[in-house]
Amino acid sequence: MLKTLYLHQANVIRITRKSLVCAAMLGLSSTVFLTGCATGQNDTLHDTTHNAIHEPLHASAGHNEFSSDIVNVVYSTTDLHDAVVQANTLDAQSTLVVFDIDDTLLTATEFFGSDKWYDWQRGRALNESGAVIPTSDAEKVNCLFDTLGMVFEIATNKPSQPNMANLVHSVNNDVVILTARSGAYRAATMRELARNDLDFTDKSLTSPDVGLHYDVTLNGRTATVSYVDGVFMVQGMDKGVLLLDLLERTGREYSSVVFVDDKQHNIDNMADALKSAGINFYGYHYTRIFKTVTPEEVAQANAARIALGELLNTHFEDRAEHINHRQCDY
Ligand SMILES: [Mg+2]
């Protein structure tokens, strides 16, 4: 019988965050909780060492207790090292490691155009009290994805944690970079990966000179996705379903997947997809990058939106007219 186990790494040191994560997990239909969440027995843990993390978790995870032949576990962590350690305990040939990009390997250096700016534009960002920040229509950009593309070209990304690149380089497994970004942003995305010492060309599941571009329709929505140089861009589609599809297209089979992502719904989708495929799943919900939006960031975003609009209106009149009339290209 398959179960999804949600575990907490010992280096999740913020009790309030941990409690929120546990509360969120309660809404998941396929979730089986460990007592660590239910009782808060690990609330006092402040252990940031890595070697000790997996021992108590796997013991308490109770693969025996749940009689599960297929592993389906999710950890909450603030350190990519945890996922790398997990991967290294598994068979290198039959284990695939999958990393998200935004707020997982890389994070924006400015609020405008960042992952949480996108959430704020969509009206789902949270303030420091955990309340949703209302975003007025005047604060929203016209053509969100056009704007995002322009900002990706302008902005830089930095590592999500100082040793990020070294940790990624230490992975011996096959690796897939799986981002919700659209392939329309590939040039800027590859540029920032390279700037941060990340190159997955030699990790590609295809021949190095082969890339995949194809349309996928899920739940009535069609997206053009692309897999090139080890970087899979799925334009907001279900990451779990799309990963299985990619493995089928590339003729790859793995018995286990280690997946790191900052978004809970991506973790959930991957857990569901791999469970259905009978693949062991080791999910890492990466919570190192703070998602709360401050009033200062809102002010910065509003100033940047106005300045960008002025630049377009003054020097790129045709594009400005398109965007001002919501004739969006992306
Ligand atoms: Mg992300």
Automatic annotation (TrEMBL):
Residues 1-34 form the signal peptide. SUPFAM superfamilies: HAD-like. Keywords: Signal. InterPro entries: DUF2608, HAD-like_sf, HAD_sf. It holds the Pfam family DUF2608. This is DUF2608 domain-containing protein. It comes from Paraglaciecola agarilytica NO2.
